[in-house]
Amino acid sequence: MRITLRQIEIFVMVAEHLHFGRAAEALHISQPTVSQEVGRLERALGLALFDRTRRSASLTPAGESMVEEGRRLLSQADHLVSKVRLYEESRMKTIRVAATPSVVNRLLPAVISRCERELPGLDIEDIAVETGAVSPLLSAGHGDIGLGRFLDPIEGFRTEVITDEEILVALSRDHPCAGAARIALEELHDLPLLLWSREQHPQYYDYVRAICVERGLNPMVLVSPPRIVGSRQYLLSEARAFSLVPRSAVGHLSDDLRTVSLQKPATLPLEMQWRDDDPRPYARALCELIVDEAAALA
User: How far is Cα 9 from Cα 24, in angstroms, rounded to an integer?
Assistant: First the structure.
């Protein structure tokens, strides 16, 4: 019996679309090629994987069993190729770090500056991504280390909380609460909460909303584009909304905003995600440096 990874890839794509034509379009190959490769796979197994009709296809019990294993096999193959390529000469001294906005603002500059002194042979390729995009980027093989909030589990990567940042209220200097030393969130019952959509990062969104609810406030949410500190910041400046931000965002808010501590403090975890079997000495050294610098900034 001879089965190829290409056959598995084509089979999984057909299983996801349940349509040979749409699978061919997604793979950028012809429909006859898709049909031929699935046929070869079925003959090699001695089993039918699809029940076919003129317009669609459905999985047989054997096909349903094979989908999950096929996806796992493809993931393992990608991991194998990704790991072996780390030994390329150009990759041995280059580490790709994906980071969300608040990390790019504060922690990452400190890390890169220290690396220039302590790891002069290392080239850090920093990749700025939006909230919620760190783990998908690493999973796709486009990064080596990720820094962000509430990162998703990825096969082949370890995840660790490296610090907890204080959460602050960001609001207009003209708001009556702006001069307070601390704010009880229920005092902001007259303002909506400016926050990105839940679809962007459900766990982070729910965490921020829970902080409000636990402190006696159930705010209406004004949906912002990916960054709170961005094109909708004027809603904060004009006292039309408030937001909850990590302390690392403070230096990147406009002058007409004020940040105030919560009366009942809350924190946001900052996590690091990295390949658990990365063979490169620079990778291990950089992870240790990031943990150390995060503790120092906290």
Answer: 11
Q: Which residue has the tokens 């090699």?
A: 44
Structure tokens at 48: 């039918």
Structure tokens at 49: 């994987």
CA distance 91 to 85: 8
Q: 258-288 pLDDT, tens per residue?
A: 999 999 999 999 999 998 888 888 899 999 9
DSSP type of residue 60: -
| Separation CA 136–CA 144 (nearest Å) | 12
Non-local CB neighbours of 142 within 8 Å, separated by 6+ positions: 96, 98, 127
Please spell the DSSP secondary structure of 132-166, one letter per residue.
T-HHHHHHTTS-SEEEESSPPP-TTEEEEEEEEEE
Q: What is the pLDDT of residues 115-153, one digit of tens each?
A: 999 999 889 999 999 888 999 999 888 899 999 999 999
